[in-house]
Design goal:
single chain; four-stranded antiparallel sheet; binds adenosine-5'-triphosphate; AAA+_ATPase
Amino acid sequence: MIHLNDIHFIREERHILQDVSFHAEKGEHWVLLGKNGSGKTTLLELMNGYQFPSRGKVEVLGNRYGQVDVREVRKRIGYISQSLFEKMNLADTVWEAVATGEYAYLRFYQEIPEDVKKKAIGMLERIGLPHVAMQSIGTLSQGERKKVMLARSMMQKPELLIMDEPCSGLDLYEREKLLAAIREFSDQDMTVLYVTHHIEEIIPMFTHVALIEQGRIIAAGPKEEVLTPEHLYQAFQVPLEVEWFRNRPWIKVL
Ligand SMILES: Nc1ncnc2c1ncn2[C@@H]1O[C@H](COP(=O)(O)OP(=O)(O)OP(=O)(O)O)[C@@H](O)[C@H]1O
């Protein structure tokens, strides 16, 4: 599904990723966890083919990057990030913005077919936002924006869903609502990769965690094995305890 082998990413003499190998199989739901500047977004950009490694091999959904048209691979990947939202036209109505996900465009230049409109409104209903369908996306709250981007990414049921800090800037209520929506959309056929620096966002649907520190993966595997105080100290340099409550980790800083 995703195979990164011996990746090095060097820019302006900085070794941003060093000797990274990462493997995710179909149906696994991964969290990529690490502090600010550790290299998480860079790793996602390699997986989406927006960046190419200085050394090493990237293979996603059976395609070796460098030998295929990455735009074709991207059609099978749902990607949610702040930078994608910023590329959207804030004057577009919400249902139109969701409908663009059907074609992986950012906006339409011709009339949207009725069935695509219905599907987009159906997605908004599923995510609990049918009432904002006719508003422009620029008028939405932060939480609504994130949910709309999730609905958009689900128009063409992706085989791989990649999310870059989708809960950043959300209050507790909005965060939990968005996590519930992500859980609702992510079934076992879909591989999920979720980037965050907040341990409490690792809800039960996530099966695996990779910890990244200064461009190196320091631990990767089933979440219970990776989320130990020792590994987390290595990643964040903060002494802490981990408490599991209903299959979700919570931390106490010591
Ligand atoms: N093209 C580039 N040229 C130079 N430095 C870069 C480039 N791309 C990324 N970096 C640097 O690489 C480091 C890792 O960046 P990255 O955005 O991957 O971190 P991150 O883990 O996603 O951080 P955050 O959690 O703060 O978003 C940063 O120090 C960044 O400044």
